[in-house]
Every structure is written in structure tokens, then in C-alpha cells.
Amino acid sequence: MTPRGPYFFHFGASHQTTPLAHREKLALPPERAAELHARLVAAGVLHEVALVNTCNRVEFYAVAANAGALAHLELAFCELQRIAPADFAAFRQHTAGPDAIRHLIAVASGLESQLLGENEIFGQVKVAYEAAQASGTTGPVLNRVFQKAFQAAKHIRTHTAISEGQVSTANVAVELAITIFGDLSKARVLLLGAGEVGEKTAKAFQSRGAAALTVSSRTAERAMELARTLDATALPFEHFPHRLENFDIVVSATSATTVIIEPDIVSAAMRKRRARPLFFIDLALPRDIAAGVADLENVFLYNLDDLAKIAAQNLAARESEAARARLIIAEKADTLWQQLLMRHR
Amino acid sequence: MPPLTDKTWLWLAAACYLAGVVVGTIALWRERRHSRALMYAIVAAGYTFQTFGLYLRGLEVKGCPLGNTFELFQFTAWSAATLYLVIGSAFRLSLLGYFTSLLSSALTLTALAVPAWDATRRIGIFGGNAWIEFHAALALFSYGVFGLLALTSILYLLRHYSLKHKRIGGAFAFLPYIRDLDQIGYRLITAGVAILTISLAVGSVHWLRDVSSVASFKLVATVCILIAYSCALALRAAGRLVGKRFSVVCALLYLAALLSLWPINSSRPAAVTAPLPADSTEPVS
Lengths: 345, 285
Description:
heterodimer; A: 345 residues; alpha/beta; Beta Polymerase, domain 2; Rossmann fold; 2 domains; six-stranded parallel beta sheet; four-stranded antiparallel beta sheet; 10 strands; 16% strand; elongated; B: 285 residues; mainly alpha
């Protein structure tokens, strides 16, 4: 921190230092965040302040007259959250000056996220900034820092592959389906099994605009219940082999101990589908779909290992981009810090 | 400065297509997506130069420039570029621009590199008969359509390989969606067969009037090509020839179609070497 500059700092805790059980205690509900905010502003400790409050991080970005404000903020936060300052010290993260700018850009770019390169955090930081702006707690420093951080984060996402490729099994499955069908708005999805894994994948397909979802499970009640939850249709389990030709994507995640989809069933369905491809995602262990299904023309079969391998490759690719992204961040943060110093003189 | 000749424009076109190949290859090598707009602009520039070059050649030979192997290759490349400029923007197919550049640069550069193919220029080969000119131009245009079909078939086979072998990353990530490729392939073969059928229908009217005007090899080869593509189309429509097998057939058929061009051209009656008097004509091909 250069003594000449404004005392711009970041302070808080995130998933990188804080286990889930403690993060639950640190989480700030909106009303308590507002209370803390009001208290700090009333005390005149901080000139400017913004709070980034997500499930993985609670972070303050603030401008103060001097470094003493940090201790004040920490104390107020611990008091409000009913945590002993000594306990909090084990998880606490703090940076100041250009390092704080670097941290903010890295957060907005998804570099500090639990799922490296994820996009959601950008919107969350933006919401946090807008909330601070609305409550009148931002000023010339925070306005400039946040706006430049957003620009830098966009630049990083555009010019590096930090966000490319899906890294969760469900999203990899959806991405593969898009590779086959392009637009999913005409794709009909059949979910076999009403367990959590299948549900998660089905939700991922729905979120990407799949035309229709049908649920089929050996336990009819569970299938109907899940169909209600997902706004889908239920299909009796014994009927699905004869209706296979009506679906473009089959997600199978049953707890069956033997194979439930044999090549001859699929072969019969493919004859009726003519040129339309059929995509099978086998998320079950032991596998639900016979390996021989993959040999059929126009049929594509991916199992858990295949999806995990692709997710791992994508993650490795993102990690290799992280170093490049950090170089860009360092350059942008240093330039911005110099600009702030010039203005402060 | 002397006026630019048709060959100069055609060299410029070839250079543009080659630039497209270089841009696409570098992007693939670096595992980056090339700018579709840039590729489109490069092919459009090549297309413009080639159109102008062929126009000048057309003025020189007093008709559609389809009189020798050089002109046939140029016209086929031009047809493929025309279709890419229409389809490429409508379907937003990544890599299709790259493959079109590859095909067009291969055809134009090969044609330019073999001077013997352009040693004789037939002037007024259509004898002022606009219908025969229309027949020939349509036939060659259908070859351009089939060329693009072969390209989309190769893209399909690559995508099919990537999906079956679970190789999704790297250069495979830039391939188009397999269903799009299948649908475009179906539309292209339909269009190609329709255009070639119209072309042969127009040509047959003249042939019936003078059976000796068309060499038997040319007749047999062209009809065989039409029958083969028509069979592939019929089987595709019936769902009997789909996916990988359809793409393999389309790629092989184009190879056969392309190979038939040279003997078709050679089977024409003896050529008259340019320059010729303006009123000089030779029997219609």
C-alpha cells in the first residue's frame, strides 16, 4: 500500500479459507448486511463501502481515511455475526491498494470461484455494486474501481479460455447434446430413474431450453412426483422401450443392477427415427445401457466416466488459462492504481 | 499501367482463398475459433475477384467460360464459393468457410498451376445457343453444390468421429453440430440433383435434335453421376442411407464427379486455339 494513495482495501472470508460449516455462520442475510452498512456509515469510519455477499464469500470493498478503519470494520462484523474475532482471524482475508484491485478483478472474472471460471459471480458482483450505489455508499474510488474491474473481467473472459468448456457432469452432458442437436428447443428428453443425479441433469437440460421432459422410474409414485416438480410428464417404466423412438436424448440414472437398455431395443427405435440421431447419457453405476448400443449408426452413448473425463479436460484447460488471466489482471490493476494515485494527489 | 487480365484477377482470387486457408489453419493450430466474419470477408473478396476474372474470360471466349479444364475448375470453385456465401451466413456453420477456402484454393491453384489446361481456348463453344450455355453453366453449378456437399460430408465424418471416440476438445470443438450438418447435406443433395436434372433436361432437348453432337463418354458419365446422386437422395429420404454412410457416399461420389470432368472435357470435338476470329464457332460441346 502506497501511503500517498486512498486507503482502498478488501476484507472478508471466502471458500478458499473458510470451511462450509463456518461459512454458514459468516453468511450475511440482506437485512443484517443493511444494518452493518448503516452502522459503519453512521460511525463515519468508511468513506465508501460495497459488500459482496454470496454463498461462497462475504467481502467488503471499502475506502477509508486510514488503516484503522479495517479493525473497526472487523470488530463490527464479528459483533453482528456473534463470532469471536480470534476465531474469525483464522479465515479472514485482507488485501489493500493494488492487491485489493487485483482481488476484485479476479473475483469478478471467476478466478477465485470454487468452480474456476464460472460466470455467475460476475452478475453477483455487479448486483453488489449496484446495491451499494443505490444506498449511496459508493464514491469516486469505488465507482472507478468497480467499473474498471467489470471491464477487465469482460476482457479476460473474452481474451482467455477461462470460462470455456463445461466442468460439471450435468453441464457436460447438455453441452454434448448441443453438439449433436444444436438447438435443444426441439429436443425431447427422457429421464430414466427419479434419483438426485438424474434430476440434476434433467434440470440442466430444462435450463438450456429442452422442448419436453418425460420421467420414467420403476417406482411410479416417485416418477410422478418428480414429473410434477420438474413440470414434466410421467411414463410407466414398462412402456419406455416401446416409446424410445419419440425421444432425442435419454438420461439413464436408475439403481438397476442389470442393463435395462439393450442394443436390439435401440435398433428397433432407430429404424423408426430414420435419420434422426439418438443420444444416451448413462449416469448409473452399474451401467444401465449396454456398451453395444454405442456401435449403432447415429447413436451416441456417454457414460459417467466419459463425462467426468471431458469435465476434467475442460477444467485442466481452464487452469492452464488462469496464469494468463492473472498476468492481465496484474497489468490492469497496476494501471488503475496509478490512475487512482494521480487523482488523489 | 496495363489493364489487368482475367488471369490476374483469378490469381488474386486464388490468393484470397489461400489466405482463408492460412487464417483457418492458424486458428485450428492454435485451437482458437477463427473470426467467421473475417473468413466470410476473405471468401467474398476471392469470389468478387474470381467473378470479375471469369467475366473477362467470358467476354474473351464469347460465352460462359467452360471451354477447357482450367475454366471448368475455376467455375466449379466459383460455384462452391457462391453457395458458401449464401449458406455460410444462413447456417452460421463454423469451419465451412475454412473448408470452402480449402476447396476453392485447391481448384483454382491447381488450374492455374497447369498451363496445359488453358493452352487452348474455345471461343463461342455454345454457338450462340443460350440454352446450351445455360445447360453447361447449370451442370457445372451442380458440381459446385456437390462440392459443398462433399465438404459438409467431410465435416460430418469428422464430427461423427469426435462424438463416437469422445474427442470433443481441441480442433473438434469448432466443428458444426452434427444434426445441422446432416440437414444441410440433405438440402444440398436435393438442390444438386434438382439443378443437374434441369441441366440435363435442357441439354437433352439439343441432344435429341443432333445425337452426334455429344460424345458418348460424356453422356454416360454425366447420366451415371445423376443416377448415383439420385439414388443416394432417394435412400436418404427413405432413411436407408443415413449418418456416416451417407456422408461417405457423398464424399466418394464427388470424387468420382470431379474425376469425370477431365475425360468429359477431353471427349469434346477438337478445339480451336485462341485467338480466333470473332465469328468463329465450333460444334457445341
